[in-house]
Write a structure and sequence with these properties.
This protein is of the alpha/beta class. Helix content is 30%, strand content 24%. It is built from ten helices and 17 strands. It has a nine-stranded mixed beta sheet with strand order 15-14-17-12-11-10-1-13-16.
């Protein structure tokens, strides 16, 4: 990167971070009670759920490929309201973020980004090695204004941004006083989204459209509020099946009521398995309403829709990173096209002013070292997960996650891959995503897992 551009980023980041640090409250995600390849975004073959586990412990079959991991799976949110700590500017690229959703949260439906803010996004994406994904403003905007943004960014400036969304969490518009839309309905949103989409596509037919960006999605909802999310999704798909390229939802599982407070370890530990039902349920609705499979994206995701800190399961805690790693693995297994953690920086972020949090380190271990081809892996052990991938250099990677608060000893069976000396990387109470002593792995192994840990084994290619 040129000195001029680096200086531009550093200066703007410093000014933004300083101004935000002086404000009383940063913006927060608008939640109520609660791939770099255009070809990859085409309709998928019939969705195949993740296979059932093999009995007897942990099992990896290196000869059984489950397909490619989306090149834009590892994402996050960032916007002008967040800023970037100047002390972290140079190390953010090491996270391995592949796509940045901008501007994140409801800021984009309350503000129209300036040209300077767009340039800042592009500069950050260049520095971070990420692709931009832009949500245009829906509230108090028009299809013509959205089309003009596409024209300015992709035609006049030539940035060629491929991924675009329209609005943010429209199911919350009726309850957000600032939106002034108390009577807004799912059908009205579906029609509005269509007008915007057609205008944007008329300027650049190559763009990929992502929606509907509903605030939550719950598999098999029983409560009335859970059904509401599905209703908004269904209304959207009925109207826009021919225009949407990637179907998106948001998910913040905690707190589960206005009075329940921050999650504890036990809540997070029990939660990660929900992704094994959420994503298949989402695919089922898509197939029923569109007659085809479309890629799915979770474009805002974190444990909590409210700020929290200092607790055993809060966003800044060690255990939060272990939980987050398990969720990443489950989303990969379910062939999720995009995961956009909320957010790169800020009080929901993957870092503080001086270092990555446990969540940031878990993201980094997966994004930088895991690989690009999913390999069959299974566990029948309670709160112990295993995920595997093959890298482009032929190396086999095995990620073992122990959500238990006690050390565990487990068996690992490895098929269709020669054993050998494996690199070992750990995220636990003693290691911060750091390398440990190498170990020998064979077809049958006994692993000793630290409590609340992520352990990555890397076996060189055959």
């Amino acid at each position: 990167m040129s000195f001029v551009k680096r200086f531009f980023i550093f200066l703007l980041a410093g000014l933004l971070f300083a101004s935000l640090a002086c404000s009383a409250q940063p913006a927060s995600p608008s939640i109520a009670t609660e791939p770099a390849s255009a070809d990859a975004a085409q309709p998928l073959p019939t969705f195949t759920p993740a296979p059932s586990p093999m009995p007897g412990g942990l099992y990896v079959d290196a000869g059984q490929s489950l397909g490619q991991i989306s090149p834009v799976f590892f994402g996050s949110n960032w916007g002008p309201w967040l800023g970037v700590p100047p002390t972290m500017l140079e190390v953010i690229p090491s996270l391995g973020i592949k796509i940045v959703r901008f501007p994140g949260g409801r800021w984009g439906d309350e503000n129209t980004p300036t040209k300077t803010q767009i340039e800042m996004l592009m500069a950050f994406c260049e520095q971070w090695g990420a692709e931009p994904f832009i949500n245009v403003r829906l509230v108090a905007s028009t299809p013509a204004e959205a089309a003009e943004m596409v024209r300015y960014i992709n035609i006049e400036k030539g940035y060629g941004v491929r991924y675009w969304g329209i609005g943010n969490e429209p199911d919350l518009f009726p309850t957000q006083i600032v939106m002034h839309l108390p009577d807004y309905t799912a059908e009205k949103f579906a029609a509005d989204w269509r007008f915007f989409a057609q205008a944007m596509k008329s300027v650049d037919p190559s763009i990929q459209l992502i929606g509907p960006e509903v605030s939550q999605f719950i598999a098999n909802p029983t409560a009335e509020y859970g059904q509401t999310y599905s209703d908004w999704l269904v209304a959207f798909l009925k109207t826009n099946a021919d225009l949407v390229d990637i179907v998106s939802v948001h998910r913040y599982p905690f707190p589960q009521s206005m009075t329940s407070g921050a999650p504890l370890k036990e809540h997070l530990r029990a939660n990660s398995a929900e992704w094994d039902t959420i994503l298949p349920s989402l695919h089922t609705i898509i197939r029923e309403q569109t007659g085809k499979d479309l890629p799915v994206a979770v474009t805002e995701f974190n444990s909590s829709w409210v700020e929290n800190a200092g607790g055993e399961g809060t966003i800044d805690s060690h255990f939060h990173g272990i939980w987050f790693a398990d969720v990443i693995g489950r989303m990969i297994n379910q062939d999720t096209f995009m995961l956009q953690q909320f957010a790169v920086t800020g009080r929901f972020g993957m870092m503080n002013r001086s270092e990555f949090t446990s969540t940031g380190l878990a993201f980094q271990m997966f994004a930088r070292q895991f690989g690009n081809e999913r390999i069959y892996a299974s566990s029948d052990q309670q709160y112990i997960s295993v995920y595997a991938a093959q890298r482009s250099d032929g190396a086999l990677t095995i990620m073992v996650i122990n959500l238990n608060s006690e050390p565990k000893t487990v068996n690992l069976k490895l098929d269709n891959f020669n054993g050998g000396q494996a690199e070992v990387w750990k995220l636990d109470l003693d290691y911060r995503a750091e390398q440990d002593t190498a170990v020998q792995l064979a077809s049958i192994n006994t692993l000793s897992l630290a409590p609340e840990s992520v352990t990555l084994y890397i076996l060189p290619g055959r």
